[in-house]
Structure formats: structure tokens, C-alpha cells
Amino acid sequence: MLLVQVAALFGQVNKQQPPPPPDASGVAAVLVCYGVIIAVSFIIHILFLLTLSRCLGQCSPRNRTMEPGMVWLNLIPLFNIVWMFVTIIKISESLRNEYRDRGLPTDDPDFGQMIGILYMVFSFFCAPVALVLFIMYWVKIAGFKNQLMSGGELGGYDDDFDVRPKRSAKPVDDDLDDYDDYQRR
Questions:
Q1: Of 3, 66, 71, 93, which is least surrounded by CB within 10 A?
Q2: Which sequence spans correspond to the domains of the chain?
Q3: What percent of the chain is helix, strand and coil (3-state, nearest 5)?
Q4: One pLDDT digit (tens) per residue for the chain, 185 residues
């Protein structure tokens, strides 16, 4: 009997009013804030991928290990978790090939690969560190892109046409090109 009275006493003490329904203007304000944050994040991600794509575009087609358009596959949700690692590795390989081909000096022998991989690894469990590494990687790749645009023997490559001659084992006979032009007329 005593237990029933104690339970009734606690039942009366712990009775609380139900919480009021959320204010519609407050909910709308929170949704607008989240929408702005998502939109700004998406724009930053687009600008980042644009920098990566343009950096690959500055490399000669023969030195690329990945086409610039392949960078945009990082917009696919969940697929980008793996593809970003591939992108980072391919960009560093392309930059290594281009710098070696042009004979340009560099102070970073891995062309940002380690910073990029660390950025991706830390993005899974430590967002503040990942943000710092993300900014460092972005700045480093932008620096390589700018150096390729301003330096080197021919400057940047905006399209897939490479004006430098391909390295071949045998000499090219220019007389055959004239004959082919003659036949097409």
C-alpha cells in the first residue's frame, strides 16, 4: 500500500505540461540558415573542383593521368568518397609529369598528394583539422596551376591540342603530309 501512495505522489510531482508546439517563424529561420549553409558549402565545393579541373587543364594532354572533366565526378554523393582519393593521386601524378617535362623546379616533391590524402582521412573524424588541410591543399593546387599558367616553355594549355612535338623513335616525313593535302583537294 505504501508503494502505491509513493508512486501516486511521484506521479503528481513529475506531471509536467507538454511542451508548446514549435513556433513556425523559428522553424523557418532555422531552415533558412541551414539552406544558406548548404548553398555556401556547395559553391565552395564547386570552386574547389573548378581549381582542380583548371590545374589539370594546364597540363599537357600527354602528361595527364586523368582528364580535367573527370574531376566533376566528385559531385556524385557517396561515390566522391573514393573518387576524391583517386583525383588527388592523379592530379599529383599529372603535375609531377608536367613539371618534369617542362623542367620546372618545385619545392614540393609529392605535389600536394600527402596533404590531400590527409584532408580526406581527417574529414571522416576530425572536421576542424580537415578544414585546415582542405584550405592548405586548395592553396597548394592553385599555386601549381598559377605557376603552370605563368611559367614554363609554352605557358598553359587551354584545350586538348598540344603544340609541342611528340617524342617518337623515328623522324616524321613532312612530304607525306603534303601528299595527303593534295589528295583531299
A1: 3
A2: 35-149
A3: 65, 0, 35
A4: 666 665 665 655 556 677 777 787 888 888 999 999 999 999 999 999 999 999 999 999 999 999 999 999 999 999 999 999 999 999 999 999 999 998 888 888 899 999 999 999 999 999 999 999 999 999 999 999 999 988 754 444 444 444 454 454 444 555 545 444 444 44
